[in-house]
Amino acid sequence: MKFVILLLAIGAVPAAADMITVGATKDATVVYNSAQCGDTPCALINHGMEPTLSASQQNGEAVRILLGFTLPAGISSSDSITSCQLQMQRPVQGPNEQYGLTASEALGSWDQATVNGLTSLPTGKVLGSVQATGNERPNAMDVTDACKDAANGSSDGSFSLWVDTSGPVVMFPSMKTGASSMLRVFTK
């Protein structure tokens, strides 16, 4: 026992990582298709102020979730980040079969009230993915590279993520419901 305390005191045994959780600062559903919604192309309609976020890949249409986050205060470099995880909430509607969710880097500059399929195009490298079923809460996705990039390259630690699905429509609560997507940041 004294030996373990001594090792901890001199730093020979690494301390457990701290976890800080923050909610999304902005979120939106972004539609990519060539369909018309009345007189307006569906891709031009903003879905940034709605109570749900949708993702699907079907019938030639891509619907993606766009999330914005700001790293917690006090994280000034990527060296202090050991890992980051994106945790989606339990879906309000999910397909009956298994589906995949994928998180990718996105451009950080977008406005929740105006974003649409022409103002924000899917870009960035794939970060992490998980398999989920129905209305079960998906496991967290690894987004460590995006957090580290934000710590090194963004003056305020802000960054954005795309969330995509491999199948039928899955819907999550948006931050407007008080149940936003969460970012878990593990630090040294």
Question: What does this molecule look like?
Answer:
10% of the residues lie in helices and 41% in strands. The chain has helices at residues 2-10, 144-153; strands spanning 18-23, 26-32, 36-37, 40-41, 52-58, 61-70, 81-87, 98-106, 126-133, 141-142, 158-165, 170-173, 182-187. The strands form three sheets. Strands 2, 5, 6, 8, 9, 11 and 12 form a seven-stranded antiparallel beta sheet that branches. Strands 1-13-7-10 form a four-stranded antiparallel beta sheet, with helices on one face. It is globular, with a radius of gyration of 19 Å. The protein starts with a helix and ends with a strand. Mean pLDDT is 88; it is low at 1-14.
Brief account:
The protein is mainly beta.
How much of the polypeptide forms β-strand, as a percent range?
Answer: 35-45%
* Secondary-structure element order, N to C: HEEEEEEEEEEHEEE
| Contiguous helical run count | 2
- How many strands appear in the DSSP assignment? 13
* Helicity level: 10-25%
Which structural class best describes the helix and strand composition? mainly beta
- What would the principal axes of the Cα set say about the shape? globular
Nearest-angstrom radius of gyration? 19 Å
- Termini distance? 24 Å
SSE map:
Blueprint: H1 2-10, E1 18-23, E2 26-32, E3 36-37, E4 40-41, E5 52-58, E6 61-70, E7 81-87, E8 98-106, E9 126-133, E10 141-142, H2 144-153, E11 158-165, E12 170-173, E13 182-187
Antiparallel strand pairs: 1-13, 2-6, 3-4, 5-6, 5-12, 6-11, 7-10, 7-13, 8-9, 8-11
